[in-house]
Amino acid sequence: MPQDSTTLRTRAGWRAPRLLLALVLGGMPEAAAAHHGIINFDLNREVGFSGTVTRVRFVNPHSWLYVEATTADGGVEAWKCELRGATVLRRSGWTPEMFVPGTRITVTGAPDRFEPNTCYLGTIVLGDGTRIDRYGQITRPGPAAPRETRALRRPNGQPNLSGEWAGEQRVLSDPRGISGAFLPLSVAKELEPGAIPEGTQAFPGTRGTAASKAENPVDAYWNQRPSVRPLTEAGARAIAGFDGASTDNPRLRCEPTNILFDWTFEADVNRIVQEDDRVQMFYGSMGLERTIHLNLSEHPRDLVPSRAGHSIGRWEGDVLVVDTVGFEPGILSADGRLPHSGRLHVIERFTLEQEGRALRRRWVAEDPQYFEGQYTGSDVVFVSDVAYQPTPCEDLSYKSTSPTDESGLSWKLWTGVAAAGLLVIAGVAARRRRGRRA
Predict the structure, then answer these.
(1) Going by DSSP bridges, is the β-strand pair 118-126/76-82 parallel, antiparallel, or unpaired?
(2) What is the pLDDT of residues 145-197, one digit of tens each?
(3) How many domains does the chain have?
(4) Which parts of 248-288 are beta strand (E)?
(5) What is the pTM of this model?
């Protein structure tokens, strides 16, 4: 029997209305590629406009500022501009109150490669003439808060890891975020804007870099780079179809990546709660939580794999040694194209430094199923300059409207349309199955 032109046969073998499938699979904005980050923007070009703030969204991984810009002929057009994530903005002294609706501003930045009237905010000038660059550190008014006095040890003699910790902010040496090397803030602020010190390189995607000029910049930035470790055949197969610029990448769907990457990603603020028999770690990035069991000598045999795995710890002198297994397969480094299987095994060593104001971690990760040798590294976090505060994650990079935007169909409504559509499709399938059985 000829197929009606208004229906489609799905992979499951049943038909559904073509229009309904179009609405569910193609009409949803979320169906678009969800890549985001610096490479989304053409930093070799510049845009600028003046206008009035309509709203600001302080969220991770990137905040967004919405503006009604004044055109040359006196008209108005809507713009939105990407800022850094809410956590690092707060650490830099930025607040949502800086951008109350009606505030007059002038913006310069770089245009989005894919979406009109969308920009990467490089510099903003407020109505009172205050200029703030993308990586600007706003001095907080009033006297500096007294530094927290940390007890170096707990009553039981263990080093005291409890508290709120964050890595030093990393910024581009160009305060506007347009060019230069990506460096610790303390280093970058001593350099000329855009400087690239010996032994470093320009951050890929910034002005003039090969990635920024590639035929397909997004693919060049994310996917045309080798893995950071030699892969086994199984590992090569696992990463072959991985697109780091899509929701294949956990952080682009607002999910934790792993216990190594998330601890210092975007210099978010983490919290540690230490007890005699356990250490709990609350990651500021994407809300990953883990418990390090100090009263176990081996892992249970019936572990349910998870993103955080199962951790047991022991003290070797003043070093906390943490052994973690039981991971669900995932990605160790999206940027480094390194996958991991369920056989991943991680050893971390935590040590207090600088009179208890810095916490250094060294790690070794092994996964004989997916990569050869050891994946190693280290990082350091410091007593945080702002309080731990869970921040909502919402990737707004490819959303032309926000959930509260009244100028267009809201994302909640799109979700409702999708859900209703899927229910209708499921109902059609069920009726057809019943008909065949009859």
Answers:
(1) parallel
(2) 555 678 999 999 999 999 999 999 999 999 999 999 999 999 999 999 999 99
(3) 3
(4) 269-274, 278-282
(5) 0.81
